[in-house]
Amino acid sequence: NNIVSFYLAGLQFRPIEDTESIAQNMILKLEAEPDNPYDGHAIKVLTESGKHIGYIPKKVTQEVHPYRLCEIPVFTKMANYIPEMPSHKRCLITIKSVEPLPKFIPMEKESDPFQDFINLDKLVDE
User: Is 51 exposed, middle or buried (0-12, 13-18, 19+ CB in 10 A)?
Assistant: First the structure.
C-alpha cells in the first residue's frame, strides 16, 4: 500500500535543534499548513515529538490528497537517513496507506482542503 516515496523538502531551512533527532526508520507525522505563504497546500513533516523537520515536496502533495479526501488514514516512515548527504537528498520518506483508494474519489472541498487531513501517529502493522 505504498503511496509514494520522496526526499524531504526544506530540511536546510529548519533549525539544527529540530533536525538533530532525525534517525533512520523513525515514524513521522503529517500536518497540513494551509496558511503557508508559499504553498496553500503545503504539508509539514514532523517527528513523533512534534518537531517540524521539513515538507512533502509540492509535486508530491497531489498524490496524498485523494487519501485525505477519501478519509483513508496514511502513515509515514523515514525510509532512509544519511546525514552525510546534501540536505535535499538526506531524508528519504515513504508514505503508506491503511487501505487502497476506492474507484471514485470525492470532489475537493471549496473551503479548506486540509481541514480534516488524516494521519496516524503510530505505524500500522505491515
Answer: middle
